[in-house]
Amino acid sequence: MTSALRRAYGPFITVASVANAIGTLVIFLLVGIMNVDVIARGLFHAPLRGVVEVVIFSLVLIVFLQLPDVVRHDRLTRSDGFLAYAKVRWPNLANNLSRIIDTAAAIFMGLIAWTIWPEFVESIETCHFITPPEYGPTPSGDFFVDLSAAFDRCEYFGTPGIFTAPWWPAKMAIFFSTALCMVIFAFKAILGDRTPHLIDKNDGEITESPV
Questions:
Q1: Where exactly are the structural domains of the chain?
Q2: d(CA 47, CA 34)
Q3: What is the pLDDT of residues 89-144, one digit of tens each?
Q4: 151-166: b or e for each residue (b if 16 or more CB lie within 10 Å)?
Q5: Where are the alpha helices (DSSP H) in the chain?
Q6: What confidence tier does 145 reach under pLDDT thresholds 50, 70, 90?
Q7: Which of 16, 36, 139, 163 could form a disulfide with 158 if both were Cys (CB 3.0 to 4.6 A apart)?
């Protein structure tokens, strides 16, 4: 049973790692934009428009894309001084307490995902990607023209005329992240200290010792 759970846990580990890598790419992109802004300000006295909005929007993506992998590696900020002491003196008690904490965390992550889902659906519905729009130009039949018009209709974040971006990708990232964190916490609660940090993609065997 435990071996089957470990194998089932493997794909979620892979997804968390990929999301973490995407979040890292967003960080590099953000650093590049900020460096260009600094150079443009210093040399040409012409700062990039909307850098503040880009930073705020990017931070949402970075935090939630990297959160599942942080949870997987037990790097989420928490006060675990007592648990660290208990693992030495009373390992069974520490393991049971960790399971209880992970169960509570899974519930809270599930509640966040359940709360943000309607907001994500409502946000993406404002774009009218499929349904006829309530206002604006009627579909022209040209895919790219209609897609651009749909993005213009989306609920947006930012300042019109400076920088705007649809809100639904950020809300989708929040839902995806919290739902994945819920699953990871659930596996941790079930497997306890036997939760593997790394599972070989080829045969599903543990290649790194558990926490």
A1: 2-194
A2: 10
A3: 888 888 888 889 899 999 999 999 999 999 999 998 888 877 777 776 677 777 77
A4: eebbebbbeeeebbbb
A5: 2-44, 51-72, 81-89, 91-125, 143-153, 168-191
A6: confident
A7: 163
